[in-house]
Every structure is written in structure tokens, then in C-alpha cells.
Design a protein that fits this description.
Protein name: ABC-type phosphate transport system, permease component
Largest sheet: none
Number of helices: 7
InterPro entries: DUF4064
Keywords: Membrane, Transmembrane, Transmembrane helix
Radius of gyration: 22 Å
Helix content: over 70%
Pfam families: DUF4064
Length: 148
């Protein structure tokens, strides 16, 4: 039995998990940019951002470090999701281990949608569909294949 639909959906999911990779790489690139730091300082010190009763704003350097840590976490999570998608596609190719591939895809979809803070929700949705199709699809009986 061919598993073309599942493989195509898995590849589409891998491409869609490239979106969190793109977003996190942009965050990591802007982390070390002094111009971004200056713009943030100007924005945080503007009169519109000053509120009555507010003691102090968080340090800009702390915000930028947090942004970098967040970007690295999302990058690693998205790359792991892409790697598990490649593994699942290899399991599906040639109909080697479709049940294992389906389970991997479903678990990856759930965990890494949350791990990428819903930036990878589209990739997760496609992985989930591919995993369900891989598990539900029944192989044809050999007698039915001969009569077709």
C-alpha cells in the first residue's frame, strides 16, 4: 500500500514548522543588534509608556536576553519537530512502520505546538492529520489487490 498522502502531509508539516524556525532566527538576530536596543529604550522611555504609580520599567537588557532565550527555545523545539517529521516520513516510505509513524506524528503535533508557543500550530495541525490518517488507514487484503 502506498502512503503518499501521509508522506505529502508530513512534508507539508515540516515546511510549516519552518515558520517557527524563521521567527526564532529573526529574534536571535535582533537580540545582538544595538539599534534595536536603542529603539526599545526610546520606546520604553516615551511619555506614552509612563504610567502613574508605576515604580520602574524592566531593564531593556533583561528583556532582550529573555527574547533571545525564547527564540533559542522555539528554534530548538521547531528543529526537533522537523527531525521527527523526517523520521516519520522514513517510516512511512515503503509502508515500513506506519503505526509508529502515526504515533510519532500525533505526539509531535501536540507537544511541539505547545513548545513553539502556538507559532507552529499549522505544522502541528498537518502532523496531526497525517498521524491520524497513518493510524486509521487499513492495509488492503492481498486477495483484494489481485482482483482490482
Amino acid at each position: 500500500m502506498k502512503r503518499t498522502v501521509e508522506i505529502v502531509l508530513t512534508i507539508i508539516g515540516m515546511v510549516l514548522f519552518g515558520l517557527p524556525v524563521l521567527v526564532s532566527s529573526i529574534l536571535l538576530n535582533t537580540k545582538d543588534n544595538p539599534q534595536v536596543k536603542q529603539e526599545l529604550e526610546n520606546f520604553m522611555n516615551s511619555p506614552e509608556m509612563q504610567m502613574e504609580g508605576q515604580e520602574s520599567m524592566p531593564e531593556i537588557s533583561q528583556m532582550i536576553d529573555a527574547m533571545g532565550s525564547f527564540g533559542m527555545f522555539v528554534l530548538i523545539a521547531a528543529l526537533i519537530a522537523i527531525g521527527l517529521g523526517i523520521l516519520s516520513a522514513l517510516f512511512l516510505k515503503g509502508n515500513k512502520k506506519p503505526k509508529a509513524a502515526g504515533i510519532i506524528l500525533i505526539v509531535t503535533a501536540i507537544i511541539f505546538t505547545f513548545a513553539t508557543v502556538f507559532i507552529g500550530v499549522f505544522g502541528g495541525a498537518v502532523y496531526l492529520i497525517a498521524g491520524i490518517v497513518a493510524l486509521v488507514r487499513k492495509p488492503k487484503n492481498p486477495a483484494e489487490e489481485i482482483s482490482d
